[in-house]
Amino acid sequence: MKKILILIILLLSSTCAFADSVNIKTQVDKPKITIGERITYEIILEYDKAVEIEPVRLGENLGEFEIKDYHIQEPAKTKDNRLISRYTYIITTFTTGDFTIPVVKLKYKDVDGKEKEISSEELKITVESVKPKPSNKDDIRPLKGPAEIKGRFPIGLVIILVLLFISAAAVFIYLRNKKKIKEKPVIPQRPPEEFAREALKALLEMKLVEKGFIKEYYIRLSDILRTYIEGRYRIFALDRTTWELYQEMRSKKIERMHVDKINDFLEDCDLVKFAKYIPNSKEIEEVYKRAEEIIEITKSEAQNPKHEMVRLRSPSFEPS
After folding, report:
1. pTM passes above 0.85
2. Contact at 8 Å (CB) between 83 and 47?
3. For residue 129, how many other CB atoms are within 10 A of its CB?
4. Among 86, 119, 276, 308, who pairs with 73 as Cys (CB 3.0-4.6 Å)?
5. Hey, where are the domains in the chain?
């Protein structure tokens, strides 16, 4: 009788443990760090095989922390014939205080095709300043008094500069109003891959990477590919999240291999755009080649004439 009761209790506890088709857990290896110290932040997902999960995107959900490196493991099977995925991020911050990594919200479709959402718990992290060494006690000295400026203020020079500025502005406005606006010639429609290749070439000529505008470079790359997708498949791409675009492309019966390549490319761009991830030189070089590859392998796919193209635009970006 006791054995039967024990068996029933084990069955009930097992059922309760896996009542949810998706479980999410977040954790850090250190709850307290010093400024600039790196910590490991993990997102662990356990789910049924039949569940369709939205790709994990941290986006702007790290608060004061920024990503220095990340690693995504391939899904592995558990003893209960479920899948487990682990996302590992190396993060840090250069601000002191008590911070909270907000909850991670994950959307998914259960076995019945119903859309659901699950959230993780918040994580509290304390960031302290580096304690000074005993030898550094005398490194703070009193401030010096304000420096005295000798001589009179050149008010006449200021007046001359103001007059020159007003004169230059008047000449500029006059010339601009005098210029006649010429009617732009009608440009015949060209294949979207031609626009995309020209935009990629123009991106290299901007030399954003050499100037240190890494994030702006990835924003531009992402916009070029999204504009190409609009022209190629006749679907909205610029104003949608990567997850929404992925679902739309799946619903249009586009070749799965192409959809996965596009989704992986845009997710890597999102890490730099939103999650403060800093790619190395090899990753920067490869992401450009991946954009060229996507355009090349998808250029032969026929555009869908049933869907009217609302816009075909070429994104512009001027680094600040």
Report:
1. no
2. yes
3. 10
4. 86
5. 19-128, 192-298
Amino acid 209 reads: V
Strand, coil or helix: 133: coil
Residue bearing tokens 């998914």: 108
Task: Say which CATH topology domain 19-128 has.
Answer: Immunoglobulin-like (2.60.40)
Range with the largest mean pLDDT of 150-159, 214-223, 306-315: 214-223
Distance CA 21, CA 51 (A): 7
Produce one character per residue of 168-196: b if its CB has 16 or more CB atoms within 10 Å, e if not.
eeeeeeeeeeeeeeeeeeeeeeeebbebb
Q: How far is CA 286 from CA 189, 205, 275, 279, in A?
A: 30, 17, 19, 11
Phi, psi at 25, each rounded to 5°: -140, 140
* φ, ψ for residue 24, nearest 5 deg: -130, 140
Beta bridge partners of 106: 118
What's the pLDDT at 300? 80
Rounded to whole angstroms, the Cα distance separating 24 from 168 reads: 63
Q: How does pLDDT run across 24-61, given as a tens digit for each residue?
A: 888 999 899 988 888 898 888 888 877 887 777 665 56
d(CA 40, CA 90): 5
120 near 104, Cβ under 8 Å?
Answer: yes
**Tokens 């609009």 — which residue?**
230
CA distances from 276 to 72, 124, 290, 304 (A): 17, 20, 21, 36
